[in-house]
Design brief:
binds heme C; elongated; about 160 residues; about 0% strand
């Protein structure tokens, strides 16, 4: 936090964030298991069936393997991908998914607050239900947050998203 406070000081003077996060990209990382949102959402599954947004509502969370095994103990058990999935489940380990949308821990962000304010998953994550593989396709940099706060007349002061100095 001391480092950030110093950064904040510098940035306030310059009125510009110091460095840019990775830009939006349509290139999806290679995941350990090729899970397809498109295939699974076409079956009528709901986002919050897997991304449960537990209290206090900051995180959406990535589902544990036991959620998958609800179906995959019997579905597609001949697939090598499903065999890999069940070996993670048997060992009680999470699949080491590569994260797509992630912001530094010094930024306050709450899914619950945004969903309650009427924001849709797709606004910040793109048309997930049409994607075989997810990539970071929207701007979740500070600039991206600010643009939407400006449009919605939401608070834009530094302390709203960062620890007060
Ligand atoms: C509601 C039941 C259900 C749940 C829950 C579910 N799946 Fe599936 N999954 C299916 C069905 C049915 C298919 C076959 C779809 C097809 O071939 O079109 C499938 C296909 C797959 C495949 C492709 C297998 C292959 O080689 O063709 C993968 C990988 C997969 N699921 C991973 C997962 C993971 C990871 C989870 C948990 C996050 C999960 N599934 C949760 C029903 C489910
Ligand atoms: C059957 C379970 C399941 C359902 C239903 C589901 N997801 Fe996912 N989701 C996953 C899994 C597994 C991952 C991790 C693998 C990946 O990134 O594709 C994931 C990853 C994500 C990520 C990237 C997280 C990150 O930062 O790494 C987003 C965003 C997301 N899902 C949004 C959605 C939305 C929006 C819906 C509804 C339209 C949805 N998901 C429905 C299982 C599910
Ligand atoms: C206002 C923009 C916004 C909206 C709306 C939004 N997200 Fe996110 N999402 C983010 C940001 C930013 C992150 C990175 C959070 C972090 O790293 O702490 C994220 C992370 C995630 C993750 C990764 C796991 C986690 O909890 O960090 C999943 C899964 C996810 N979102 C799913 C969803 C789903 C499902 C919805 C709709 C119910 C949704 N998001 C709505 C911005 C949004
Ligand atoms: C889709 C538009 C949109 C995007 C994108 C967005 N926000 Fe927001 N944000 C809002 C709105 C609207 C509110 C609600 C304001 C209110 O309730 O008065 C809000 C509220 C907040 C709050 C207060 C939450 C609370 O607990 O009361 C924080 C902190 C915040 N946003 C941080 C962020 C960060 C960080 C990002 C980028 C990663 C971001 N926002 C991206 C629209 C957005
Ligand atoms: C709406 C939320 C929001 C507000 C308001 C906000 N920030 Fe940020 N800020 C972010 C996010 C998100 C990041 C992380 C970007 C990333 O690295 O992905 C960030 C990152 C930063 C960084 C680190 C930059 C870097 O690359 O290391 C500094 C410094 C910073 N903000 C300063 C400020 C200052 C000064 C203000 C007030 C003028 C401010 N922020 C207001 C969301 C916000």
């Amino acid at each position: 936090m001391i480092a950030l406070a110093a950064l904040l000081g510098l940035t306030l003077a310059a009125q510009e964030p110091a460095a840019a996060p990775p830009p939006p990209t349509l290139k999806a990382p290679q995941q350990p298991i090729p899970y397809s949102h498109k295939k699974h959402l076409a079956m009528g599954l709901k986002c919050q069936g897997c991304h449960t947004n537990p209290d206090p509502g900051e995180m959406m969370g990535i589902p544990e393997t036991k959620v998958c095994m609800g179906c995959h103990t019997s579905v597609k058990t001949d697939s090598p991908h499903i065999q890999k999935l069940s070996s993670f489940a048997k060992e009680g380990r999470d699949v080491p998914w590569i994260r797509i949308y992630q912001i530094p821990s010094y930024v306050f962000f709450s899914h619950k607050a945004h969903v309650e304010a009427g924001a849709k998953c797709e606004t910040c994550h793109g048309p997930v239900a049409q994607r075989e593989a997810l990539a970071r396709e929207t701007d979740i940099s500070m600039g991206g947050c600010m643009d939407c706060h400006r449009r919605n007349k939401a608070n834009m002061s530094c302390n709203y998203c960062h620890e007060p100095r």
